[in-house]
User: What shape does this take?
Amino acid sequence: MDLFKQYGRQYWWPVLGNGAEHDKTFEICVGAILTQNTAWTNVEKALNRLLDANLMTLKAISECSVVKLRKCIQSAGYFRQKTKKLKIFSGWIIKKYDGNWKKFFAKPILEARQELLNLWGIGKETADSILLYAGNKSIFVIDVYTKRLCKKYGVEFKDYDDYRDFFEKGLSRIPSGWSRVEFYNEFHALIVRFGKEKSIAIIHKIS
DNA sequence: ACCCAGGCGCATG
DNA sequence: CATGCGCATGGG
Assistant: This one.
């Protein structure tokens, strides 16, 4: 909470306003995939290019040519892999859920998570980001910053899911006025920024 | 000229 | 099981 007082809301996702009617849930998923090991500034450029090209929809991405898609997302790096990832992801949600997010997010959370993990190109962090930020599911997202923070305080696990349990159990009391989802969202964002700026701040009593 | 960024899949020992 | 490596761009 000290971090929160210091920095305030981070407003991570959502999202590019830009007036245009596009699928914001999808935009979050695209961002989650494009930002894999990549600076967000580079991802933003790619997202804007996709918007400008009217490609920020499931249908458009899954139907557009590989060459065109690559050009749009080039700035986000690893563009060959990421093009494939976006196409696989889009094709899957269209085929299995008629492109209807509600149908997918209606599933029990762990089933939904596993299904994401079964897709090529979606690992645990990306899956959890999609569930939390796109699906508003209460899943705590772990990334390198979170692990670094833990290590600093002498907490280490070998498995990703052990970190996740640690935070989800440790953060059992949610501050009043916050939903669990909002709190996870904000907490994760703060950790990332905290890591970036190497600020001195204290998170106590996590567990 | 390096190093890093909101990872992941795959090959190797 | 657990490391190691390739993937690619742009900013410090």
